[in-house]
Design a protein that fits this description.
The protein has 526 residues and is an alpha/beta fold. Strand 1 (7-13), helix 1 and strand 2 form a beta-alpha-beta unit. The strands form five sheets. Strands 1, 2, 8, 9, 10, 11, 17 and 18 form an eight-stranded mixed beta sheet that branches. Strands 6-5-13-14-15-12-16-19 form an eight-stranded mixed beta sheet, sandwiched between helices. The two termini are 40 Å apart. Among the domains are: 4-73 and 104-182 and 275-351, FAD/NAD(P)-binding domain, CATH 3.50.50; 415-501, Glutaredoxin (3-Layer(aba) Sandwich). The chain has 14 helices and 26 strands.
């Protein structure tokens, strides 16, 4: 039996980007959290290399977005180039108005260092390093975890009300739960080469997909003086030989890169997977990140998908632990997240097919068609916006049954002016709990007002901000509400629209079991 000191609200298994984001979110909401991690320190190999504005918005909620962005590269172009290095598609990701650059390149070890330091701000978060979770056993009231110390073979037991298993694609937790992990592994394996930049070269500051039928390649800038290349292992080649220094220099020489430009840090071999866990919830245990899904890296969304998982799940867990909502809300986690992950995965597979196409006759058609589309500006812009990362919108899940155009959407995040006269990002002004946003003067909403859900008026530019009022100086939020014919929005703690009312119409009722508690104070940016 675990004693009271070993009892937690949530245990997080795995301390990669998904697990450490969950630890920060849960810690910020005042929960008692145990983080179980087999390794002693941060994994030294950089895996993820980019993220997007919605993920930065999640990290903003825990006060770390500004600090993380200092170690990132943003606003860089990307190009698909032919076998002669000539672009046939050029693009810059288009912002969707979430208050951060639409794409940022990162160096994963540095990112994880900041996120781990962030989790250390919360006294309720206990970090159990060099502990491997051997067993999870659950009953109607909680989950018992049996841990093994990897250094000394000591056994420790802890208990948690819920468990987030973010322990990677080879998740031992998923295996213990007998949950299938179905999909495919692509035939091609890839050599991934991480380097430290010594001397910049022309074009080092852009992402290039070399769509060469003879040997495709990915050429990617990464911050803090790093650069990455990826090359497929061709039929008949020896994977072990291709990661030697001599072979790596031969691959880099194809693009004019030698010892004067970079220092090789490491080269390793990866396989690309498309896989989904059959279930993401088994009782009180939830799979997240790579434990729940795996996708090819072509649009840089593997890590981002895991961070989105954590953001969707953690506020719901906190609501259940605090008695604000019933346990049934947790069933909406997979219902909301899985369709979006599937959409992103399909997009990643499509981009991969464009990059890795080996049939010469197809590339002879692909390249001029791409150039023609890029010369048609409105079409090019539409393709850039639609063809990269699908917008997260929940079509099913924890939403009012009376759906509106705004339902299940994440509201944009402009800068707004608050009562003190400061201009701040919208999420910082709203505070992270349930609330009603009114376009103009607030109208009574008895079902919501009776629960103590705060109301905030969104006023037009030029209005003096006052109590319970924010000024939409640039008109972004009011225009978005008008586009979706919404005069009132009921926002969940994660910023997604639970319900909306058309002008003059009633706002749908709140969830039957909602009991509102004041949101926990958020840490300031660091």
């Amino acid at each position: 039996m675990s004693n009271a000191a070993d009892a937690y609200d949530v245990a997080v298994i795995g301390y990669g980007p998904t697990g450490v984001t969950a630890a920060n979110l849960l810690g910020a909401m005042g929960l008692r959290v145990a983080v179980v991690e087999r390794d002693a320190g941060i994994f030294s190999r950089a895996r993820a290399i980019s993220t997007d504005e919605e993920v930065l918005r999640i990290w903003q909620r825990i006060g770390l977005a500004d600090r993380l962005k200092r170690d990132m590269l943003g606003d860089l172009p990307l190009e698909f180039v032919d076998d002669r290095g000539r672009p046939f598609v050029s693009a810059r990701p288009v912002s969707r108005g979430h208050g951060h650059p639409p794409q940022m390149f990162l160096y994963q070890p540095a990112l994880e260092e900041v996120l781990r330091a962030g989790a250390g701000r919360y006294p309720g978060v206990d970090l159990l390093l060099e502990q491997e979770c051997l067993q999870v056993r659950q009953d109607g009231a909680g989950v018992d975890l049996r841990l093994l110390g990897v250094r000394d073979d000591t056994v420790r037991r802890i208990r948690a009300s819920y468990v987030i298993a973010a322990d990677g694609g080879s998740s031992l937790t998923r295996a213990q739960l007998n949950v299938g992990y179905e999909g495919r592994t692509f035939e091609d394996r890839w050599v991934v080469i991480d380097t430290e930049m010594i001397e910049p070269w022309p074009g080092h500051d852009r992402l290039r997909f070399h769509c060469d039928p003879a040997r495709p390649a990915v050429d990617c800038p990464t911050p803090l003086g790093h650069h990455r290349w990826e090359f497929p292992i061709l039929p008949g080649e020896d994977a072990a030989e291709l990661v030697t220094d001599d072979a790596v220099w031969r691959l880099l020489a194809r693009y004019g890169i030698g010892p004067d430009q970079v220092r090789i840090l490491r080269a390793t071999v990866y396989s690309h997977h498309v896989r989904f866990a059959a279930r993401w919830r088994v009782g009180r245990v939830f799979l997240a990140g790579d434990a729940a899904h795996a996708m090819p890296p072509w649009i840089g969304q593997g890590m981002a998908a895991g961070v989105r998982d954590a953001a969707n799940l953690c506020w719901k867990l906190a609501a259940v632990v605090r008695g604000e909502l019933g346990d049934a809300v947790l069933d909406s986690y997979e219902a909301e997240r899985k369709p979006h992950v599937r959409g992103i995965t399909r997009r990643a597979v499509l981009v991969g097919k464009i990059i890795t196409e080996r049939r010469k006759v197809v590339t002879l058609l692909r390249n001029p068609v791409g150039r023609l589309l890029m010369r048609t500006r409105p079409l090019a812009r539409r393709l850039q916006n639609a063809a990269w990362i699908p917008e997260a919108r929940y079509g099913a899940g924890f939403l009012s049954a009376n759906r509106a155009s705004a339902s299940g959407r994440l509201v944009p995040q402009p800068l707004v002016t608050v009562a003190a006269g400061a201009r701040v990002p919208l999420d910082d002004a709203l505070g992270g709990g349930w609330l009603l946003l009114h376009a103009g003067a607030a109208r009574p909403q008895p079902g919501w007002d009776g629960l103590g859900v705060p109301s905030i008026t969104v006023a037009r530019a030029g209005t003096d901000p006052g109590p319970h009022t924010i000024v939409d100086d640039d008109g972004v939020l009011l225009a978005w509400m008008a586009l979706h014919r919404a005069s009132v929005l009921a926002l969940r703690p994660d910023g997604y629209v639970y319900a909306a009312a058309a002008p003059g119409g009633p706002l749908p009722a709140p969830p039957d079991d909602l009991a509102v508690r004041p949101p926990q104070s958020q840490p300031t940016s660091s």
